Amino acid sequence: MQALITPGELPQWVPGKLLCASDDLGWKDVALRSYHYAGLDVEVPALTDFAIVAYRRGGTRMERRFEGRWTRTHCAPGDCSLLTRAQLSHWHWTEDIDVSHVYLSERLVSRVAADMLGRSAGEVRLRDLLKARDPVITSIVEAIAREADEHARGSALYVEALGTQLAVHLLRHYASVSPAEPAPRGRLSSGQVRRLDAHIAEHLHEHLTLEGLAEVAGLGVWTFSRQFRKSFGRAPHAHVVDQRVARAQRLLAQGSLALKEVASACGFADQAHLTRVLHGRLGTTPGQLRQTAGA
Which of 46, 59, 257, 265 falls 20 to 30 Å from 231 in CA-CA distance? Predict the structure, then answer.
């Protein structure tokens, strides 16, 4: 059996100009790589990850052979292709195109599948789909691409949530075994809420992950995300950002720390990230907050 290749190794078989990559952003279980390709005829080795190809610019006739069968269509912006992991494929197209590849790790899909379906990701394969026009997939890929384009180093938790949402959608609509709709879940218990509040406060300056928060609550990621939203009224990543903003406001009001120290203490990537988030959430800057508190 041929060894699986990683997304980072793909250009050895599919040469193109790399436009954007999430490689150095600290993301976990989700990756994005955008390319400009000229026309190619290439054999693609089996990948370690599930792959979504979103067409961003240019249109072309696209042909793909998968498990000995050729499919042919025309792909253009708004379309996407799905490729299950660990499967060889052969691709052929003739025109220049820009695409974004989103990769979901086996670990992420397995975790979501186990939580939703009670079965491992090894029992779930994405359907061979050369062309889909799915606004849910497109919007999630675009959101992930924006985070990579903007080099948003503080976005790992948000991107992990997007990856989980994408995995759920793929399992519901494009898996070889249709998943059952999960039974309605309740809210987090008061004990779980207390543990989460304490954990977030203690580790707010660190890199918090959706999986780590779910482990604190003793739940699978998908169940945790649903119950967290019911309990807190917002997604985990939004709640964490709210807590970081609240701590920053308190520290800025005290006035004893430099702005870069405030950013570090609150879990922002740097002073610029702190400024950007405060402006987006509160419509003001760290300096203005400090001046207001001292007035």
Answer: 265
Instruction: For residue 163, tell me if it sits in a domain.
Output: yes
Q: Which two tokens stand for residue 279?
A: 């402006």
Is the pLDDT at 180 greater than 60? The verdict is no
Looking at the structure, do residues 134 and 88 belong to the same domain, yes or no?
A: yes
Q: Are residues 267 and 144 in the same domain?
A: no
Q: Among residues 248, 259, 155, 161, which one has the least CA distance to residue 207?
A: 155
Q: Which range is least confidently modeled, 15-24, 109-118, 231-240, 279-288?
A: 109-118
Whether residues 125 and 226 share a domain: the answer is no
Handedness of CA 116, 118, 119, 120 (dihedral sign): positive
* Same domain for 165 and 247: no
Whole-number Å distance between alpha carbons of 115 and 201: 27
Residue 183 has pLDDT above 50, yes or no: no
Nearest to 7 by CA among 41, 43, 33: 33
DSSP bridge partners of 83: 51
Tell me the C-alpha to C-alpha distance, in Å, between residue 272 and each of 3, 43, 92, 269, 281. 42, 43, 43, 8, 14
d(CA 195, CA 213): 10
Q: CB count, 10 Å around CB of 227?
A: 19
On whether both 30 and 64 belong to a single domain, the answer is: yes
Structure tokens at 234: 């917002």
User: Is the per-residue pLDDT at 263 higher than 60?
Assistant: yes
Q: Which helix (H) or strand (E) holds 143?
A: helix 135-149
Could you tell me the pTM of the whole model? 0.76
What's the pLDDT at 295? 54
Same-domain check for residues 65 and 200: no
Q: Is residue 86 part of a domain?
A: yes
Q: How many domains does the chain have?
A: 3
